[in-house]
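Students often ask why we bother predicting the structure of a whole assembly rather than each chain alone. The short answer is interfaces. A chain on its own may look different once its partners are present, and contacts between molecules only exist in the joint model. In this exercise we take two input lines together and write out one structure for the complete complex. Read the inputs first and try to guess which parts will touch.
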Amino acid sequence: MEQVITVGLAEIAVSDNPDAVLVAFGLGSCVGVCAYDPVRKLAGLLHAMLPQQRNGDGNKCKYVDSGVAELLSQLMARGARREQLTFRYAGGAQMLTAPGMTDRFNIGKQNAEMAHSVLAREKLQLLASDTGGHAGRTVRLFVANGRVQVRMINGDERAL
Amino acid sequence: MAQKLRLDDQGIQSALQRMAEAGVENAAAGLSQMIGQRITMSVPRVTSVPLASVAERVGGPEAQVVGIYVAAEGDLTGHMMLIMGLDDAQRLVNLLLGQVDDCVVGLNALGRSALAEVGNLTASFFLNAIASLMQCSARPSPPAVVVDMAGAILDIMLVSAGELSDDILLLETLFESEGRQMTILFWVLPDLLTLESLLL
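Now the answer. The structure tokens for the assembled complex follow.
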């Protein structure tokens, strides 16, 4: 019986329940960072909205940089081994495209770039990513096997 | 900022409530005029909502919705969005273009531009009322019409509000048309500086 664990905005979920699927619904400029330890069969998903934590604001899961660190530490606390962990991320779309519209900061692009650079800096194993564009994504991480599915509003669904 | 503003502060919520009532009343009047049908509005509610549960208020983060987004610029800054289901967006377009209800043209360029005009007008009337109360100036940005998952659309508004706080102070009003069943949510997220100026 599949058990859906919803990962809301600025949240992390970690699970080793083989029936569980971690889901970040409707990512726009946000990114969902998936981590999986295939030996321990332990999965974690971060739903972050901004690239970088500033002045030690309380909720680490709101930001990509501090969120990835928090995800890592929660997984390790549950017995994951750093060198076994594999990562995938998706999201970081630019939702506003109308001419003259202010997407001053293109926060989606910044989020995706931060995910990439944090994983590289920490020498974590990145398998795949799906970012950019102008449409929302739902990201599913299956705990049983670490499979990641990305779904768009038009029904397109693919493995990442 | 010398002092951290508390979003659950009663003072700020009631100050915002007073502004919102004036703004929303004006917006509903403007919208009624534009579509030639009386639009009624609910009394605006000001609530503080945790980031993680904002999308639940519009049917969940994966629900397909239409968002018409307008930013407030000038002395008062913040974000405004009209949010509705696809069916209601279609009804609204039909109403604006004088088409019968079962006519489904989809949200083509014409439909989108009609919706953009609704956003522009609602935001202008709302801002004008508040700006004249506060004797300052505020204007709407060009509107953007986005059709996508609710969560993805809400990211547009939440990014700047969420940077400052784990909760957002949300002003929520329901517009309903008398003739055709149609419900449209109107959300306003004032920026923190604007909230502070409301209290002065």
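Check your guess against this: The radius of gyration of chain A is 15 Å.
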